[in-house]
Specification:
The protein is α+β, with helices and mostly antiparallel strands. Helices cover about 30% and strands about 30% of the residues. The chain has six helices and four strands; from the N terminus they run E-H-E-H-H-H-E-H-H-E.
Length: about 150
């Protein structure tokens, strides 16, 4: 982000990170830009299990935020490994792709396997916070400021 470090109190993102190839770099940049104690709220698409190749390799599925998504545990680990704390999945909802769309990418057998397997596409909202430096950024009456 072309923004100075330690300037934002809050960062909000809605269904964008799954389109970025370097998700680790995005979380590093979010950490850099947030002030100490700042937080983010990100809604995004994640996966559980492997997408069939027909969905994973299709440009329309990429543009629809599906094929660029990564595994939920990897997504949450990227947040943690970049130093964030208080990581909370606030919402999680299954995304159901209708059969009339799936048939454009998968055979009837593949659709049945996909729907009966352990694969899931989910919309999640994640909250996380950059740790506080412990220093007061302002003084209140009666407080000791350093």
């Amino acid at each position: 982000m072309p923004i100075t470090a330690n300037v934002a109190d809050v960062i909000v993102s809605n269904c964008v990170l799954n389109l970025v190839p370097n998700k680790d770099g995005v979380f590093k940049d979010i950490y850099r830009v947030l002030k100490s104690g700042g937080h983010f709220s990100i809604s995004d698409v994640i996966l559980e299990g492997a997408l069939p190749d027909g969905l994973r390799k299709d440009a329309e599925m990429y543009a629809g935020c599906v094929s660029g998504a990564i595994q939920k545990e990897v997504y949450l680990e990227l947040i943690k490994s970049n130093g964030f704390e208080n990581i909370t999945v606030q919402k999680e909802k299954a995304i159901i792709i209708p059969d009339d769309i799936l048939k454009n990418y998968l055979s009837v057998e593949q659709i049945q396997s996909f729907k009966s397997g352990r694969t899931g596409i989910f919309s999640i909202t994640v909250f996380a916070q950059k740790p506080s430096s412990g220093k007061l950024s302002y003084c209140t009456p009666g407080s000791v400021c350093c």
